[in-house]
């Protein structure tokens, strides 16, 4: 039987949300029926060998459409020459619809646009305003005929990318599902990792995310500084890398916190590091629907997130949404430091469809060209948790 070929466009070397989503889907999809290839604007992928060893092809784009439109069109057309049955376009904001247009003109059977964010991750305020203006221009003129399917990770993400242009009942909410058993609370792993990292007796605050404007690390440092004043056994664990990492490291040094803040870098043992934490913090300025917040809840952690994050992320009673007030964050964290019962809650995540072993069946139906309306909510439905 001929495999259904899907192009994932684009992924990045950061292995952040979009990339993680695509890679996890590849891990669990029925490989006897489906084949994934990947397009990237990154010069290299640290995990390239892992993908090519599994028969995936990686297409490296040398430029963006803004840098050299004619060259970009040439390279995208060369990729589409491979004859894909579906092009899955992972989108954070609009700069145009060139890839969508090319894929539809080439009569690709499925062109799937998938919204993963609710804002633009640019540090410079003026530049961000310019990008938002451009995004809104294209959002308000998005042609229905430039895709066969419209998807989003949350209702907020759907509103951000599609506005009123795409009927809400035509937008599928695809859940950022995870491999639940991998992240499930494990007391033995927690004990081992805390000993390994020298964290016995410590109250560990954790965060996973790239060091970028979106993740709001400056606020996180301010929160931790005040928590540490009240709780000298507190420690802060950062997992991830990014362009603002050195800036945050300098701030940590200025506050004299370098011995109690842990910069772990990019890791492949995130599930075990979550076990070692006591609290998970996500003060992001914006998110589509953060996969790490689902993972942290599966790990049984008490989680605190900014009010800007979609309420669809609240799968367990362990997640609390906190205002922008630093003092509110500190109060909640210190209160939690007195202790709470950490238990397995895999069943809660599975009940609401965030177990990837089940949700991948919806993705397979989508790639096979089936109507998935009865398997997942639309952007106009009430999302019941």
CATH architecture of the largest domain: 3-Layer(aba) Sandwich
Let me know the average pLDDT: 96
Largest sheet: 7 strands, parallel
Structural class: alpha/beta
Number of domains: 2
CA-CA gap between termini: 38 Å
Query: Strand order, biggest sheet?
Result: 3-2-1-4-5-6-7
Element pattern in H and E: EHEHEHEHEHEHEHHEHEHEHEHEEHHH
- Total of DSSP H or I helical runs spanning 4+ residues: 15
Low-confidence sequence ranges? none
User: What would the CATH topology of the largest domain be?
Assistant: Rossmann fold
Please report the total strand number as a whole number: 13
Text of the CATH class of the largest domain: Alpha Beta
- Indicate the percent of residues in helices: 25-40%
Please name the fourth-level CATH homologous superfamily of the largest domain: Glycogen Phosphorylase B
**What is the CA-based Rg, rounded?**
21 Å
Principal-axes shape call: globular
Binned strand content:
15-25%
How does this model look, in words?
The protein is built from 15 helices and 13 strands. With 385 residues, the protein is of the alpha/beta class. It folds into two domains: 4-174 and 356-367, Glycogen Phosphorylase B (Rossmann fold); 180-348, Glycogen Phosphorylase B (Rossmann fold, 3-Layer(aba) Sandwich). The strands form two sheets. Strands 3-2-1-4-5-6-7 form a seven-stranded parallel beta sheet, with helices on both faces. A six-stranded parallel beta sheet has the order 10-9-8-11-12-13, with helices on both faces. Helix 9 links the parallel strand 8 and strand 9. The two termini are 38 Å apart. The mean pLDDT is 96.
């Amino acid at each position: 039987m001929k495999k259904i070929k899907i192009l994932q466009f684009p992924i990045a070397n950061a292995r952040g949300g979009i990339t993680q989503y695509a890679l996890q889907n590849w891990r669990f999809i029925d490989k006897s029926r489906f084949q994934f290839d990947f397009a990237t604007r990154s010069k290299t992928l640290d995990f390239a060998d892992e993908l090519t060893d599994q028969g995936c092809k990686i297409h490296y784009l040398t430029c963006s459409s803004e840098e050299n439109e004619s060259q970009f069109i040439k390279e995208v057309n060369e990729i589409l020459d491979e004859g894909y049955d579906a092009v899955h376009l992972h989108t954070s904001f609009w700069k145009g619809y060139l890839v969508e247009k090319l894929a539809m003109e080439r009569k690709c059977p499925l062109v799937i646009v998938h919204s993963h964010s609710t804002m633009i991750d640019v540090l410079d305020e003026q530049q961000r305003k310019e990008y938002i203006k451009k995004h809104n221009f294209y959002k308000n003129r998005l042609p229905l005929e430039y895709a066969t399917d419209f998807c989003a990770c949350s209702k907020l993400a759907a509103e951000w990318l599609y506005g009123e242009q795409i009927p809400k009942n035509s937008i599928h909410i695809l859940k950022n599902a995870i491999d639940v058993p991998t992240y499930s609370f494990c007391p033995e792993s927690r004990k081992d990792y805390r000993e390994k990292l020298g964290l016995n007796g410590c109250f560990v605050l954790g965060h996973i995310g790239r060091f970028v404007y979106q993740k709001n690390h400056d606020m996180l440092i301010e929160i931790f500084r005040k928590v540490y004043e009240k709780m000298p056994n507190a420690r802060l664990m950062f997992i991830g890398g990014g362009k603002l990492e050195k800036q945050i490291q300098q701030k940590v040094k200025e506050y004299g916190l370098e011995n109690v803040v842990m910069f772990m870098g990019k890791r492949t043992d995130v599930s075990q590091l979550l076990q070692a934490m006591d609290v998970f913090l996500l003060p992001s300025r914006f998110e589509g629907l953060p996969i790490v917040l689902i993972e942290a809840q599966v790990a049984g952690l008490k989680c605190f997130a900014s009010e800007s994050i979609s309420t669809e992320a609240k799968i367990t009673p362990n997640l609390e949404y906190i205002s922008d007030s630093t003092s509110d964050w500190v109060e909640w964290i210190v209160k939690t430091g007195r202790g709470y019962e950490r238990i397995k809650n895999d069943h809660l995540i599975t009940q609401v469809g965030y177990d990837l072993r089940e949700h991948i069946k919806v993705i397979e139906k989508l790639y096979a060209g089936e109507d998935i309306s009865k398997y997942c909510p639309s952007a106009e439905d009430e999302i019941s948790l």
